[in-house]
Request: fold
Amino acid sequence: MIIDCHCHAGKGDGLTGPWDTAAPLGDYLRRATAAGIDRTVLFAAFHSDYRVANREVARIVQSRPDRFWGFAFLHPVHDRGRVEAMIREAVFEYGFRGIKVHRHDARISREICEVAKAYALPVLYDVMGEVSAVELLATEYPEVPFIIPHLGSFADDWRAQVALIDALVRHPNVFTDTSGIRRFDLLAQAVRRAGAGKVLFGSDGPYLHPGLELAKVRALGLPPVEEEKVLAGNLLRLVSRRGNAERRRPEPARRSRRSPQLSPELFAAAETAEVRDPWAADPYAA
Reply:
């Protein structure tokens, strides 16, 4: 199985660039299918109201529950005070499996980290080169797996990417994805030093070509067992932790009339995740 852990979908409400305008999936799906990608994690394009944007992503996920999983996009400032309600909705109504935060919006908050911990969700946080924050996140919230995409810098900041490799080695709850990493030797170094269990395949679709991004993983020449971790196993392990939230599940909020109507199959997916103890020894071990 191959799972792309990093793809945007839906429309933003800005017009400054593709990232806040639109993320259409037509070409992405054609390219991903040709590359042999089986499943894709979707989250919104940049938006001024992520509750609206997450509902649009939920409708897309609902249309192909066999093909898509969702992560809830959160704004640390605009969503202050409603993070738990948004994640409750995302997990128990939409079947979402993680959280996405971007430094472009604002720095990640304790509120988001506390909710991620309570719901046993991974957080994909684009630090935009601000790798020093990873040290604080990893030590303050060791129960939360943090996926830092682009090896810490989509802007190809060599210093930030080298620093993130050190964080991958030192912290069991820090991971990265392969999307947008242009210095191939740094990707190879990350796998060699931190291990294949710390790296997830991602494309940053639809903006980047998923087949080209997948080719980088293939070019690493990993043994089949190690390559499987990067292509699917690591993500499956992290999202399976969501089942722990069932032990402390809050009463689900009454479904809003504006919420998308989800299929019984997708709603059931939120109810049947594997249950593991998040405080067991080395919960991130491969």
